[in-house]
Amino acid sequence: MSRRKQINQNAMPFDINAVIAALREAPDSLSARDLSEMFELSRTGQKAITELLKRLQSVGLLRRSGQEFRWSNSSRALIGTIRQRRRKMISFIPEEVEERARGRIRVGAEDLNGAYDGDLVIAGLSRTAQDKDREAKVEMILRRGRLQIIGRLQHGFRESWVESLDEKFPFDTEVESKEVAKLDDGWIVLVEITSYPTARNNPTGRVIEELGASSDAPGMDIQIVIHKHDLPHIFPDEVLKETEATSPIVTETQTAGRLDLRDVPTVTIDGETARDFDDAISLSRMKNGNFNLGVHIADVSYYAREGTALDQEARLRGTSVYFPERAIPMLPEKLSNGICSLNPQVDRLAMSALMEVDHRGRVVKYELRETVIRSNERMTYTNVNKLLTHADPQLAMRYADLIELFKTMEELAQILIKMRRQRGAIDFNLPESIFEFDDEGRIAGVLKADRNIAHRIIEEFMLLANETVASHFLRLGVPSLYRIHEEPQPQRVIEFAELASAYGYGFPVEGVSSKDYQRLSKQLEGKPEERVLAYAMLRSLQRARYSANNVGHFGLAAPIYTHFTSPIRRYPDLIVHRILRELIKRPKHHPLQLGQLKLIAEETSERERAADAAETEVDEWRKAVFMAGHLGEEFDGMIINVREFGFYVELDDFFIDGLVPAGALIDDYYRYDERIHALVGQRGHRKFRLGDRVRVRVDRVNVDRHLVDFSVVERGRSKSKRSRKRNSP
């Protein structure tokens, strides 16, 4: 390790942050002597401050003129905070608002230099400020954050420690035995780190919360994930007070000046377990043959006003987080499930996109209005699908007066689907997992979620409303938030094209468009390799995010797109509603400036990433728990990913995948051939390729790390699950 990395900030005889503040605020240059006099330092302190000044100069934060130094406001080095969700999900958040608004800055795990989540650091940028994908390296830790780690308590003969369940801090942390003597081994606790790991010493900490006696306790996995990902889950008192002051009913004063649509037949369509309904649909056929589509969205911005405690908390959370049997809402339930939810048979305030759509799927006329609606029915995707497929005569009798409405919805949805396909929109139709539970709340199965025509109806109508609102902002030339999806990075396209070629499919490596993805997706329908290449296609694309600068949406083949339809659960939608409300009242007014919008876009994109990671981790945890009950059993599956260290197999019986480590292939020595995306035996030349069918045995499960390891079972040697269970002790 170089000498400049070994500087011990904590040993310096002055407050580094105070020195930096003095340098930043000084109207003139300062020397080491000036600062020594300012902070009344000894000779040792003078040497230390000279060393600090040279270090700050070396990373680009100071400019030197003779013996004096001036703050440089360099774009090469910045002060900011480390944010880490997982080991490989590390970001640097600059203090300067302008820098934060310019987008995410990544930090490699090898470039942290002893920094952890929440630490205030000086970081040097490894790329120029103009690059979109910026990377940083920690140069100096200025102040430790308040690092809290969740883990499992263990007692030894004379000491106690906490085994970390958080991969961003993978250390055993020593705690005071007397403070936790009453807790048994295995207790799940929250620890605040008081000293950090060194080459000779483990970290130490103090237990600040006792969560439960075991990680196997119902709901404990969600509790652990909430703390690991730093998800705000308790509403402050001032937020609850503001919520309590909200009227639980819509009053005549509130409806004054709004377009009254309470007599227009309107329905909500959501999942069976949904409790917050933020969109409702009305639809009729016009005399000219066009469709009169109304997408009515809960008017959350009326209740969550800018600058209130409620607004600040919603911005902090950024999004609702959904787990299998629990949600962490962005808004308190009195709002999200109450007055803001478009419940049936009650008046609700809404922001409505009223669109005239022709038979080619084009919006030929639209109106965006503040409205008041009254939903006639709360429908589910399952029931609407049954009505459209004539699967339930009794259900058809119950909703006889709405069947024609749903048929018209299906007709319009098919028109919109065709329009998007012609435009080049990509539809991978990749399934999501859902969990089945037994009577005791244990996981009984992991299945693929059903996606029927009712889902497509709502998806298409929401997409159309979002595009219409975004186009409205563009036409008026006002700053707004957009949902963007940038073109795929060239290297990822090349890698995917090579994989497609290995399966006999052509794919361009230059000038790739969404139509190229769509064309290949169509070719793959029903083929054995469809799942494999669909996942690979998805990995080759960039992640959609929020931005104040519109660059279009590659996946939707849309020149402009925003999020307008879910303000109950997404903060960007709430911002879009606020902008729209101001434009309805004052068409030439710009309610939010571009700089504000850039900052909100970056914040909410980061919160979305954290929420997605948390939701994914709970799913992975639940799958590992389920597979732990199937150790030694055999299943058929398909290879869905091949890497140097092994290959992943997705099981046919359950929507679960696991790793076959290369070391578990004992019949030969296998090397990874990236040209054909396969592990190839060096002697026998046996290949394990993407899309191959294999039979595997569940060998190991690490529930804490959510890892499932398989081994390959040779055909003809496997035993049935039933006989193996009969012979087991």
Salient structural properties:
729 residues, alpha+beta, Arc Repressor Mutant, subunit A, OB fold (Dihydrolipoamide Acetyltransferase, E2P), 6 domains, 5-stranded mixed beta sheet, 5-stranded antiparallel beta sheet, globular
Question: What's the total count of β strands?
Answer: 34
Unreliable segments (pLDDT under 50, ≥5 consecutive)?
1-8, 720-729
Termini separation (Å)?
A: 55 Å
Shape: globular
Describe this structure as you would to a colleague:
- The protein is α+β, with helices and mostly antiparallel strands.
- It has 6 domains: 3-71, Winged helix-like DNA-binding domain superfamily/Winged helix DNA-binding domain (Arc Repressor Mutant, subunit A); 77-143, Beta Barrel (OB fold (Dihydrolipoamide Acetyltransferase, E2P)), CATH 2.40.50; 148-214, OB fold (Dihydrolipoamide Acetyltransferase, E2P) (Beta Barrel); 237-418 and 428-465, no CATH class; 490-541, no CATH class; 629-727, Nucleic acid-binding proteins (OB fold (Dihydrolipoamide Acetyltransferase, E2P), Beta Barrel), CATH 2.40.50.140.
- Helices cover 32% and strands 27% of the residues.
- It contains 20 helices and 34 strands.
- The strands form 10 sheets. Strands 5-4-7-8-6 form a 5-stranded mixed beta sheet.
- α5 packs antiparallel against α19 (594-628) and α15 (490-502) packs antiparallel against α17 (530-540).
- The longest helix has 35 residues, at 594-628.
